[in-house]
TrEMBL record:
The chain crosses the membrane at residues 30-63. Its EC number is 1.4.7.1. GO terms for molecular function: glutamate synthase (ferredoxin) activity. The keyword Oxidoreductase applies. It comes from Psychrobacter pasteurii. It comes from the Bacteria. This is Ferredoxin-dependent glutamate synthase 1. InterPro entries: Aldolase_TIM (IPR013785), GltB (IPR024188), Glu_synthdom (IPR002932), YerD (IPR027283). Residues 162-489 form the Glutamate synthase domain. Residues 559-579 are annotated as: Disordered.
Length: 579
């Protein structure tokens, strides 16, 4: 029986093959450069001077690439390397226009953006030939229509924000512009948003960048957000200035005050406005110096404990003349929010509203690690806040708004069904004023003039036409919301409940959202008998006089729980497992 043998190349054959590979590599690396050199020589001989000039410039570029040492790609691929960098700079646009499908979300799908554009332009938002969704896919959700469905002729749905301590309650739409600062957005974008809000009768959140002249020009309703930098009401050291605050807060255009504890784009990290985006107007509006990055602290200096936060919002309520005051946050450590709730109860002083921001992010630029790995997603964060207020028996005292990747009537209807009182949208309204999702908000090179302080780029944004689009997007979205509510057989979105929405599970079964999420019993936290024990544990850890966890109470609770479990036989879970 013959043995198979592997042919081992000789040393000479290996050397020849390596030489050929090296020669091919040289052609690949320097072929374009050599070609341009030859083209330059030929152009000179033929006296084609325009071609000689063009190719000569490329030769100079190639020589520079060979002499520099900072970019290995350019050294190994003179001239050709620049093509690579050029195409890479347009990668998001190339992917968005030519590669991604209509349903691919990065972070908003082409279909989602098209829906906003169509509603903003008052053109038909209907499609033909069936849905593009896989209706049998995991996590697919849909509303359950009713045999008693009815058309609703409603132009707007509104709520009133303000508890018993509020002297100037505010009637607001259930769909409003979320926080986006002047500085992050251009002056023209701010004007278009505010004029659109004025035309449509809804609210415009200023973001933490203070109230600019562009917010004031058209007189649209404002929610003034106070971040950790206290822009617009800060002293020379960056601390809160009560007198400056009162001057702005008592303005009739300001309808509510929002204390920002954290935001979804970068929870746990203060905002950053790069120095190249800081103009003289921004510096005057925020009361900050120019020529250096504007960095918001990660925490507030006006208060250090949950109880002091309660005192702070009461101070703002009084300084503003009794206007609604609330907080905005992206949920992080759960016991810290519960500590705020405990402080509310002990002080018998409640914010008029809470806005829950999801970790889905927004216009704020942030390190990738923060965007990907910090903060609680919107639905989880909202349900935690909602359950905590219900479990502590104070849900009726506080309205809850939500923000985070909300652009359609379905998004709004779903959040209202889960228990939210209103919804905010940032990027949805950015699309309405012309944003194309180039994702260059932090570079000052926004191609549509929305998120830039470059006066030449900003000129591309026409305020009158974009304001119409903002108002139209709001109007048509609420019209669609009315259709949703009517199709379910109801007359108002507040009648929506989690059992009106179904979800397909990973095993193919169908559950109502009322069975997919945990909803706490009213007052359960006060009696420490929440069916989900994690709520009991977090409640024990919450200290109204500190944002730190009360570990001793946590250990004692767990010891007591173990003793209780030993003495009590296990019971069937109260959580439903099917539709």
């Amino acid at each position: 029986m013959s043995e198979s043998r592997i042919a081992i190349p000789s040393k000479a054959e290996s050397t020849d093959r390596n030489e050929r590979q090296y020669q091919v590599g040289v052609v690949k690396r320097y072929g374009l450069f050599f070609g341009v050199v030859i083209l330059t020589v030929v152009a000179i001989l033929l006296q084609t001077w325009w071609l000689a000039l063009l190719s000569g410039i490329l030769v100079v570029v190639g020589i520079y690439d060979l002499l520099q040492s900072k970019h290995s790609v350019l050294y190994n691929y003179p001239i050709a390397g620049h093509i690579r960098y050029f195409l890479e700079s347009y990668r998001p646009e190339i992917r968005q226009y030519f590669i991604e499908n209509d349903k691919e979300e990065v972070p908003f799908s082409r279909q989602q953006r098209a829906l906003v554009y169509q509603r903003a332009k008052n053109v038909s938002d209907t499609n033909a030939f069936g849905t593009l969704d896989d209706l049998y896919a995991k996590d697919k959700e849909w509303f359950l229509q009713s045999q008693t469905s009815q058309p609703l002729d409603v132009q707007d749905f509104r709520i009133t924000v303000g508890n018993e301590r509020c002297l100037q309650p505010y009637s607001m739409s259930v769909f409003n512009i979320s926080a986006m600062s002047f500085g992050s957005l251009s002056g023209r974008a701010i004007m278009a948003l505010n004029q659109g809000a004025k035309m449509g009768g809804f609210a415009h959140d200023t973001g933490e960048g203070a109230i600019s002249p562009y917010h004031r020009k058209y007189g649209g309703d404002l929610i003034w957000q106070l971040g950790t930098g206290y822009f617009g009401c800060r002293d020379e050291n960056g601390n809160f200035d009560p007198e400056l605050f009162a001057q702005n807060a008592t303005d009739d255009q300001v309808k509510m005050i929002e204390i920002k504890l954290s935001q979804g784009a970068k929870p746990g990290k203060g905002g950053v406005l790069p120095a190249e985006k800081i103009t003289k107007e921004i510096a005057l509006t925020r009361r900050i110096p120019m020529a250096e990055d504007c960095i918001s602290p990660s925490t507030h200096s006006a208060f250090n404990t949950p109880r002091e936060l309660v005192h702070f919002w009461q101070q703002l309520r009084e300084l503003s003349g009794g206007k609604p005051v609330g907080i905005k946050l992206c949920i992080g450590q759960p016991w810290q929010f519960m500590a705020i709730v405990k402080a509310m109860i002990e002080e018998d002083n409640y914010p008029d509203f809470i806005v829950v921001d999801g970790a889905e992010g927004g216009t704020g630029a942030a390190p990738v690690e923060f965007m990907d790995s910090f903060g609680m997603p919107l639905i989880d964060g909202f349900l935690f806040v909602h359950n905590t207020l219900v479990g502590s028996n104070i849900r009726d005292k506080i309205k809850i708004g939500v923000s985070g990747k909300i652009v359609s009537a379905f998004d709004i209807a779903k959040m209202l069904a889960l228990g939210a009182d209103w919804c905010n949208s940032a990027r949805g309204f950015m699309f309405a004023v012309g944003c194309i999702q180039s994702r260059s908000c932090h570079t000052n090179t926004c191609p549509t003039g929305v998120a830039t302080q470059d006066p030449y780029r900003e000129k591309a944004l026409d305020v009158p036409s974009k304001s119409d689009r903002v108002a139209s997007f709001h109007k048509n979205t609420l019209k669609s919301l009315a259709n949703f509510v009517g199709a379910v057989g109801l007359s108002h979105p507040y009648e929506l409940h989690p059992y009106h929405v179904a979800r397909r599970m990973s095993d193919g079964s169908i559950k109502l959202l009322s069975r997919c999420f945990y909803f706490i019993d009213e007052g359960a936290l006060l009696n420490m008998n929440a069916r989900s024990d994690i709520y009991n544990q977090m409640w024990v850890m919450a200290d109204p006089d500190s944002f730190k966890a009360d570990n001793e109470a946590y250990v004692a609770y767990n010891d007591d729980s173990r003793d209780s479990r030993k003495a009590t036989p296990p019971t069937h879970s109260e959580f439903p497992t099917d539709i």
